């Protein structure tokens, strides 16, 4: 299984009154990890968009384990958890600078046409990306 790690430097504006990263920002970090993962497979998300395809989130799940604070570094580990040729579920683990798990989660996406939001088979429309997903998942 392929895992891509993205470094995040926690910025002040990402924290709340308690001095910890505001919970919604972890979803932004998941997106950074997902984009980096796609790039590590050799693809650019904007190239899919140029072909009229977008990949909205169908489901997001987040578990908070321990806080990350301003000035710390965080690392988003991203992998393909499930893939069936149409939907892809990414898994995430965010660890702090000490390597301790702070947040885990998953997001599920589907490719759709940008104009009508009709589902598109990754397997048929983007066979190279399909094969890259299978290889990254270890299939």
UniProtKB/TrEMBL annotation:
This is Acyl-CoA thioester hydrolase. CDD domains: 4HBT. One of its GO terms (molecular function) is fatty acyl-CoA hydrolase activity. It comes from Salirhabdus euzebyi. Pfam families: 4HBT_2. Its EC number is 3.1.2.-. InterPro entries: 4-hydroxybenzoyl-CoA_TE, HotDog_dom_sf, YbgC/YbaW. Gene3D superfamilies: Hotdog Thioesterase. The keyword Lyase does not apply. The lineage of its organism: Bacteria, Bacillati, Bacillota, Bacilli, Bacillales. The keyword Secreted does not apply. PANTHER family: 4-HYDROXYBENZOYL-COA THIOESTERASE FAMILY MEMBER, NOVEL THIOESTERASE SUPERFAMILY DOMAIN AND SAPOSIN A-TYPE DOMAIN CONTAINING PROTEIN (0610012H03RIK). Keywords: Hydrolase. Belongs to the 4-hydroxybenzoyl-CoA thioesterase family.
């Amino acid at each position: 299984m392929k895992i891509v790690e993205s470094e995040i430097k926690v910025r002040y504006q990402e924290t709340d009154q308690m001095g910890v990263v505001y919970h919604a920002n972890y979803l932004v970090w998941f997106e950074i990890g997902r984009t980096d993962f796609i790039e590590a497979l050799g693809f650019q998300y904007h190239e899919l968009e140029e072909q009229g395809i977008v990949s909205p989130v169908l489901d997001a799940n987040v578990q908070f384990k321990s806080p990350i604070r301003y000035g710390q570094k965080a690392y988003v580990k991203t992998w393909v958890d499930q893939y069936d040729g149409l939907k892809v579920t990414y898994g995430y683990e965010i660890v702090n600078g000490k390597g301790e798990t702070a947040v885990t989660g998953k997001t599920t996406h589907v490719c759709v046409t940008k104009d009508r939001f009709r589902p598109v088979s990754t397997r048929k429309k983007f066979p190279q990306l399909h094969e890259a997903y299978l290889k990254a998942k270890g299939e």
